[in-house]
Amino acid sequence: MVAIKASAVDAFLARPQPDVFAVLLYGPDAGLVAERAERLAVRALEGSDDPFGLIRLEGDELASDPGRLADEARTIALFGGKRVIRVRAGGRAITAAVDGLLNGPAPESLIILEAGDLKKSAPLRALFEKSPRGAALPCYPDEAAGRDRLIDDEMRAAGLSIAPEARALLVAHLAGDRMAAREEVRKLCLYAMDQGRIEPDDVAAVIADAGDVGMDQAVDAAFTGRTAETAALLRSLKIGGTPASVVVGAALRHALSLHRMRGDVDGGRTARSVVEGAGGAIHFRRKEAVERALSRWTSERLLGAVSRFADAVALTRRHPTLGEAASERALLAAAAEAARANR
What does UniProt give as the signal peptide span (predicted)? Predict the structure, then answer.
């Protein structure tokens, strides 16, 4: 079986290859590994009434007794039908146990191994990727599309809809771990069960840290053209006591910084090399957003943004109420401009 790309994992789970009897799920997202392992197990045991159809083993136990995995896999189910053996890899090597299984007679059981993040050179991963009887499925933290699917699944199950701004705020604050993220969404659905539609205030009230957004997130959302998310984050910041007039000050400083870096890009350097060359001046979590912003904003347009942000800051000092409204408009206008630049 060739190595399966992360983008093809869901397709494999929906229709596993019939000649594959051993599956390795690995990656840094332990919740996603466990969720996908459960999905495979439930599918394999569908229609079975055998209370002993599911066997759980610890990898460290198999390291001491390598032959046990093959023995368990080839044991006939008491009531007939398929058996599923779930193995959680530990700190000890289990390659000998897996090698004996993959190179012996094909069992009636499905073997599911759950492991942490494995490099391409890791022996366990290599065994599965090279064997025609095994499949190695990478489980990486959810990207935006994965988060949206998760939210849609839970909304559909709960019979709820969600406002676009509420969705953007929710996506921005879900945990990286799949199971933790799903639990957060389910908690939100339970909170809003009688409303029919989830609004931004519901997200801010329920999701952990949603009312404590960092200004950097709102600024980066604006400069990369994520208009709905910018609006949602500004609203969340306001709920937490940070007005748009404060955010626009951070946006002004960021625009000036981007303008300096854009000069290097205009001089012939790539956006990535400019960002990497800034070192610790850019937080590692912001580097991707800064690189995207540099690709969307020209020097001339950045100067225009600087002027608008500066006007909003000046107005805030003279007329706080008017300045607040002007600051929000300036930030949303920047997000809309960045979005247009990507078309």
Answer: none
